Amino acid sequence: MHYPPLWQIELIPWDVFIIVWLFGVLRLKRTKATEPDSSRLYTSLVLGCAGFLLFEQAWHLGVLGMRVLPQRSAVGWAGVVLTFLGAAIAIWARIIIGSNWSSRVTLKVDHQLIRSGPYKYVRHPIYTGMILALLGTAVVVGELRGALAIVLAVIAFSLKAQREEKFMQSEFGETYRQYQGQTGFLVPRC
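and the corresponding structure tokens:
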């Protein structure tokens, strides 16, 4: 029996992730306030570069194509597991946040502060899950370009999350500050 290559298996959680996001867009609350387009453009460009580095195989990227992880089955499967785990966390968080979600930093009409599911542990679990999934993909790729992509993604998601925090503080005040004290930013508190 012939099995698909590891990189094709590794794409499955990304496909599911995209499908969940597409269906999730169908039921969103109206937007009350949004970030400037320039902020969104910056995040999109940085994340686009990270995605290009991870998923584009046709380009020869010089030193960025240098292998930094051993090309072993166990390493590849560890990356696949991380990708599935990260995608699952992001999907879980997306389902829990429901109609309050937006691809850009916004406040919705009748916005709710979600503190259940993964939001009980971290304030930005979608980003946490996406970073973990990207880390899994980087492990499967095993090249220096994967490490650079992770750095770019962490920077972009951290800056976007900081902008979201300002919106949430303006909307929920002391309640949000208490929530910040009880939860981690991208990683759960010990």
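(Above: one complete record from the training split.) The chain has five helices and two strands.
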